[in-house]
Design goal:
The chain is built from 14 helices and two strands. By secondary structure, the protein is mostly helical. It has a single domain, classed as Orthogonal Bundle (ABC transporter involved in vitamin B12 uptake, BtuC).
């Protein structure tokens, strides 16, 4: 008898495929410490190799202040990459993250400057807007079952239009200090480190801990590995996906706050390249675009790889267009490596 003809309540009696077994194991078994594999170490080794290369090309590269500058330059994309990683781990993708971030930044700044709202309340409103966009994406993906690529392509354009309409395409200036405090710096080892960088690192640690040590985190991997197998083990796939998209939206709001703090203005034209930068960071960090495999800290390393390449090429006097070219090549190589590793594992 064809196994596909069996009713859903008999499906567990069918012998599980290897992917199903892996998903069930991810959902049920606790995490244990293990030495990282070469695949997991790949992004870190690539970052070290890039640093060594640029250190040989420029005396200014290997300084504490330059590394602090790179960290400040990637903190916004790094925050976007947290949300993007969660979505890609579930075999989805979010093209709207940059535009949603820009909308959140404009909401925060306009409410604080033009409407006179206290800064904490204005920030909360901005976070609420970006989270609502995440929830909307999740509803369209889970309830109507639209592909995440199409859904987020649509919401990207909606967010861009709303940003331009609400801001009248004008930059918001004269921000209160509370909106820019995360852009302030403190001295550490001869370098000026931004408070926003510390926030980014703290959120990465929390995300890593949640994905590694909690049941909901393991469910994210299980859904990305095989959503049907995850459902058969008792995981609510829709709940997991809704939670992932909502958390991603919240991360985009935090990224908006860091963007505002770093630039000191509410820029309606922000976020136009950050969506691709965030996807680039996730892919370079070793997270599979096919879902179910990856480490959140790898996305931080991926963001640093992009930042190091752009910083190093700038110090070498290379035109910015070549920096974009190199980034594109790195993405293709990372995706090709992921595809080859999947084929080798079969």
């Amino acid at each position: 008898m064809d196994s596909h003809a069996l009713p859903h309540d008999e499906a567990p009696l069918v012998p599980a495929a290897p992917a199903s077994e892996a998903a069930a194991a991810v959902a049920r078994e606790p995490w244990h410490f293990h030495l990282p594999s070469l695949v997991e170490l790949g992004p870190f080794l690539a970052l070290v190799a890039a640093c060594l290369f640029f250190a040989l090309q420029s005396d200014r590269f290997f300084t504490a202040q330059n590394f602090a500058l790179v960290a400040q330059q990637v903190m916004v994309v790094g925050l976007l990459a947290i949300g993007q990683t969660l979505i890609i781990l579930t075999a989805g993708i979010d093209l709207s993250c940059g535009m949603v971030m820009a909308l959140g930044g404009i909401v925060m700044t306009k409410l604080a400057v033009e409407s006179g709202l206290p800064a904490p309340l204005a920030i909360a409103c901005g976070l609420a807007v970006t989270t609502l966009f995440g929830i909307a994406n999740g509803l369209l993906v889970t309830r109507i079952k639209l592909p995440s690529f199409i859904v987020t392509l649509g919401t990207m354009n909606i967010a861009f239009a709303l940003t331009q309409l609400y801001s009248n395409s004008q930059t918001v200036t004269g921000l209160p200090d509370a909106l820019t405090v995360l852009g302030n710096t403190f001295s550490l080892g001869g370098a000026e480190v931004s408070y926003g960088v510390l926030l980014m690192l703290a959120l990465y640690f929390l995300a890593w801990l949640a994905l590694r040590e909690t049941a909901p985190g393991r469910h994210v991997y299980a859904v990305g590995n095989n959503s049907e197998a995850a459902r058969l083990t008792g995981i609510s796939v829709k709940t997991v996906l809704m939670g992932v998209y909502a958390l991603a939206g919240l991360m985009y709001g935090v990224a908006a706050l860091l963007s505002v703090a770093r630039t000191g203005v509410g820029d309606p034209n922000a976020g136009q390249t950050e969506n691709l930068d965030a996807i680039t960071a996730v892919v370079l960090g070793g997270t599979s675009l096919f879902g179910g495999r990856g480490v959140i800290l790898g996305s931080l390393i991926g963001a640093m790889i992009v930042g190091v390449f752009r910083n190093g090429l700038t110090l070498m006097g290379v035109s910015s267009i070549y920096q974009v070219l190199v980034t594109g090549i790195l993405v293709i190589l990372a995706v090709a490596t992921d595809q080859l590793s999947r084929r080798g594992g079969r």
